[in-house]
Design brief:
Shape: rod-shaped
Low-confidence stretches: 182-190
Largest sheet: none
Order of helices and strands: HHHHHH
Number of strands: 0
Number of helices: 6
Helix content: over 70%
Structural class: mainly alpha
Distance between the termini: 95 Å
Strand content: under 5%
Mean pLDDT: 84
Length: about 190
Amino acid sequence: MKTGTKVLIAVAAVVVLLALLVIGGCNGLVSKNEEVERQYSEIDNQLQRRSDLIPNLVATVKQYAAHETAVFTAVSDARARLVGASSRAEQADADAELSSALSRLLAIAEAYPELKANENFINLQDELAGTENRIANARRYYNEAARNYNTSIRRFPTNIIANLFGFEGVEYFQASEGNKENPDVGDLFN
């Protein structure tokens, strides 16, 4: 075989190898990005589930504690804000607000022994607690997928592929500052 042919075959092999590397890297990033979106939709799904449970919980508590309108309004407003959130940051803030309002609502429920014994309330409270656990798990899985994806787009050589094809990092789902503190519900019992 001539030297020119050998060089041409070697160059063609390098080009094919680079093309396979780019295609594999790009496909890997697409898969990781889709996993991030799938995990985020699970957070959204669980937040919607909680949002759907809240009117039933509020209605049940209202029957026993009709004079606690400020708390009911806060829960309703926070739920509306969560449903209307258009970005991940807005959704995280609204989620924190709703969690705080729900904590106050459940604290009020503790003051009514007949409500605590109500089967509907107990079922709703259990459903809500289960949903809160699902939300926490969904956030954890999303943040894990986001970490894997963000790490991939920053590592060499996939960082080159990420820059070429416009892959950008994603934000982690973090609790807002106000949600990191326990709500003060002492005033509700005075």
